[in-house]
């Protein structure tokens, strides 16, 4: 699941945690498609993903998310980096109703951004994984 480039300044643990955040976001959106994503970084003690889920999660929901994450990891799909124009990224996330991604894109400097894809999941991300 790890890419081989862009490893400078990132430990294997940081990269694993970052990838885990993406896998979790993918799992949550698969189970709750109306979920809107913001950011999902690795942090010193693990990872998190800021997301807007339009319902309260139960213990059963958390178990489903964990199972979906395990399913995604078992597919062993690579993280593929793609550099695109901000306009192209905005169009993609606009079609998906990802309002928080649109806010982030508009605040970023420059004309291009990077996306990472694994399977059908695509996220705005500087990487690496």
How would you portray this structure in words?
The chain is α+β, with helices and mostly antiparallel strands. The chain has one domain (12-124): Threonyl-trna Synthetase, Chain A, domain 2 (Threonyl-tRNA Synthetase, Chain A, domain 2, 2-Layer Sandwich), CATH 3.30.980.10. It has helices at residues 12-31, 59-74, 86-95, 99-107; strands spanning 36-37, 42-43, 46-47, 51-52, 80-85, 112-118, 121-124. A 3-stranded antiparallel sheet has the order 5-6-7. Strands 1-4 form a two-stranded antiparallel ribbon. A hairpin with a 2-residue loop joins strand 2 and strand 3. It is globular and about 40 Å long.
**How many strand segments?**
7
Q: Summarize the biggest pleated sheet.
A: 3 strands, antiparallel
The percent range for strand residues is 15-25%
What count of domains describes the coordinates?
1
The helix/strand order is: HEEEEHEHHEE
CATH superfamily: Threonyl-trna Synthetase, Chain A, domain 2
Determine the CATH topology: Threonyl-tRNA Synthetase, Chain A, domain 2
User: What's the overall geometry?
Assistant: globular
Going by helix content, strand content and strand pairing, the class is alpha+beta
Provide the spatial order of strands within the biggest beta sheet. 5-6-7
CATH architecture, please? 2-Layer Sandwich
